[in-house]
Structures are given as C-alpha cells and as structure tokens.
C-alpha cells in the first residue's frame, strides 16, 4: 500500500478530549490479536472506565507525549512516549490499588497478571536506573496500516531520544517487530506466552527491544 503524501496528514499533540478516541483505536487495532482477546474485555464497563482514566492521566502527565495523526480530519493513529529523565523512574509508579483494580476487571486476571508482570518487570530489570525514552504504545487504524504512518510517528519520537542522547525502549508484538527492527531496535528479551493455558490456540510472542542513541539532534 502506498505511503500517504505529506499534505494529507497532520501530526498533532493529543488532548484530554481525545481520550475516548484513543481508547477506541487501541481496542480496534489490537482487538484481532488473541492475546488482547484473552487479557482484555472491550465490553466490560468497569475495565473500560479504568482504562479511560489511565489514558486521561497520561495525557496530563508532563513526562508523557501523546501524538495523534489526522488524515482528512480523522484520527487514524497515535503514539504514546514517556520521557524518563530521572534514573530512579522505576522506584515510582501508580498506586497498587489502581493496578489491582485493572487486573481484577480484566477478561482473565491470571493472564493479565502474567503478561503485565513480564512487561513491567522487564522494563525495571533492564532499564531501571537509566534515563530513556519509552514507546508505550503505537497504534494505527487497520485501514491506514502500511502507509508509512507508523514510521512517521517513530521518526518524531526517536528524534527526541537522540536529542537527549538516551536509549529508546519498547515491547514489540509480532506485528510491530519488523518496523522496529528497521529503525534500529535490537532484541533484549523474548517472552512467549502460552495462551492455550487460558483457552486460546496460540503462543503470543513479545520482544523487549532497545535502540541506542544515534547522535544529538540540533
């Protein structure tokens, strides 16, 4: 699929008023993955409410940058970056009761605990004590995938990492992995989650990846 001409898209800061659209796009883009179907429940009002609250809080966090891509007035993609310039970032975090509430309202709390236990654990083990830029999420509407929008969002974010001369970190799904390799991310840790334990049919692979800084930008 051809890339979009630059005149057709806009990269803009997302606002708190975009929280519902961000949540909808997250659900749409990941909803086809068996991991998401098992871990999350897009029809659970309590779970959706907690996720919306989390997104709104992120949009008001000065360390977080949410960028949205607009095409002909339509919100078609987004990226969430977290700039951790405090090496002790891993010693902080949201209250445990909020984490517990999200897990209890997950479609499968045990699967939720296994997946996010690995995800948050590997971040702390590998990047704890280091300044870095975290790509927490990058999502493109299925109808607009393969048009270069993900690359556009990556370039913008990685320029920030290079400006600060710090590594960039992410956890990739199988779908996003090739794009991240293209942009210089290297494998750090592989996590294969056996979904058959939870009634699924596949093994979902996630890969923790890091990209070293590539020079300061002006």
TrEMBL record:
Domain N-acetyltransferase: where?
64-214
Matching entries from Pfam families are given as: Acetyltransf_1
Q: Which InterPro entries match?
A: Acyl_CoA_acyltransferase, GNAT_dom, Trichothecene_AcTrans
Q: Look up the signal peptide feature and give its range.
A: none
Q: Which SUPFAM superfamilies match?
A: Acyl-CoA N-acyltransferases (Nat)
Q: Name one GO molecular function term.
A: acyltransferase activity, transferring groups other than amino-acyl groups
- Return the PANTHER family for the record: GNAT FAMILY ACETYLTRANSFERASE, N-ACETYLTRANSFERASE DOMAIN-CONTAINING PROTEIN
Record-given protein name: N-acetyltransferase domain-containing protein
